[in-house]
Write a structure and sequence with these properties.
198 residues, Tetracycline Repressor, domain 2, mainly alpha
Amino acid sequence: MKNKIISKATDLFLKLGFKSVTMDDIACEMCISKKTIYKYFCNKEILIAESTEAVHKAVHQSIDTIVARNHNAIEENFEIRKMFKEMFKSGDTSPVYQLKKHYPEIYDTVMSREVNECNTVFKKNIEKGIQQELYRKDLDVDTYVQFYYTLIFSINGNTSSEKEANRLEFEALEYHTRAMATPNGVVELEKQIQHFNI
């Protein structure tokens, strides 16, 4: 039952927002009593914390699956971008923006967790791109990881509209890739842009 509550709450939080969804809403959607929810979660903040943990796991499992498909480095980043777009398409308001605004402590926990995971993903991608001669060999990998991380997390934390956040993240991905790309990388980037629907 606990996992079912987390799953339903996560769907509702992503669709309607962390602030607007109440424990009553979740109970009503599941046709259970609010008392049943409180049996597993003594307050909404704990449920939000567990929901964000579940989203974190789902996101990184999806990233691992994409990486395992052995795309080239640029295509891999575009596939990850598509996955994020698909996963968070249901809501009007950016979940990360809402979390930062209404539940800053949970936001800080989520961000510290994401920093480590994302830095690893970004770093491996850049190293892969250099090996494939899609990214320049003279890159300072750690600096570019930090540039991209700062861009993406700034967009998420400061853009209230999920649609606008998606558009800006796509622009950031293009910007990031162009900054690193070799001539072959630029050709691959243009190919990926043509196939991507913002």
